[in-house]
Amino acid sequence: MLLERLTLETINDFEILIANNDHHKYVEELCALYEDSAKKRGTGIAKREAAYLLKNIDEQKAIIAIRKKDGDLAGFCYIETWQGKDYVVNSGLIVKEDYRKLGLAFKIKQFSFDYTTKKYPQAKIFGITTSLPVMKMNSKLGYKPVTFSELTQDDTFWNGCKSCVNYDILTKTNKSNCLCTAMLYNPKDVKKKNYEIKKSVTKKVAAKQTGLKPKKQINKKKTK
């Protein structure tokens, strides 16, 4: 039955948008999805409180995917800010099991990333994960692996890891290491890289144009 559904569904059958008050009705289902996903994976944050998800929705800091034909919940993620919005996390990316293998997770991730870079253009976007697919998605978006010391040091963020089964590892290492991989997107690094690329291309174009110009003929006057 699941395989039959997947062959019929395509990425165009879903709408991805910034969540609003109309989507409050999905919160209980989302809480159950998060808890069930953590149990199946055996790692990760086990619970998201309904009040917290509602808060993110009300603050326009949540992205939701809905199946167009019937409004069924398909996926979700939310945005968190730390240290005065210097650091931002696209967190809690989840896709309902029935709608996986369609590329929906990356579409949600990309939508959230683009929205975040516009809403917080100077912020460093980071994430910690044990999921290889999420690491691959982050790499495509320009994230780089970093040490935990390069992430926010806000205790509130790290307290959010308490429901993870690996939290004791994090505390034993004084937040310097865990089973998660830390990844960071720094807009300053990207701007610097783009500037260097542009500068290099400009030099090459200038050199090519100079080489195509005919050499000027110097007329020497004959002296008697």
Summarize the structure.
By secondary structure, the chain is of the alpha+beta class. The protein has helices at residues 2-8, 27-41, 50-58, 104-119, 132-141, 155-159, 167-172, 187-212, and strands spanning 14-18, 62-67, 73-82, 87-95, 124-129, 144-146, 181-185. The protein has a 7-stranded mixed beta sheet, sandwiched between helices.
Overall 3D form: globular
Low-confidence stretches: none
Query: pLDDT average, as an integer?
Result: 86
Order of helices and strands: HEHHEEEHEHEHHEH
Rg, Cα atoms, Å: 24 Å
Largest β-sheet summary: 7 strands, mixed
Question: What does this molecule look like?
Answer:
- It is a single chain.
- The protein has 224 residues and is of the alpha+beta class.
- It is 42% helix and 20% strand.
- A 7-stranded mixed β-sheet has the order 1-2-3-4-5-7-6, with helices on both faces.
- Helix 4 links the parallel strand 4 and strand 5.
- It is globular, with a radius of gyration of 24 Å.
- The termini are far apart.
- The mean pLDDT is 86.
List the topology elements.
Elements: H1 2-8, E1 14-18, H2 27-41, H3 50-58, E2 62-67, E3 73-82, E4 87-95, H4 104-119, E5 124-129, H5 132-141, E6 144-146, H6 155-159, H7 167-172, E7 181-185, H8 187-212
Parallel strand pairs: 4-5
Antiparallel strand pairs: 1-2, 2-3, 3-4, 5-7, 6-7
Helix pairs in contact: 4-5
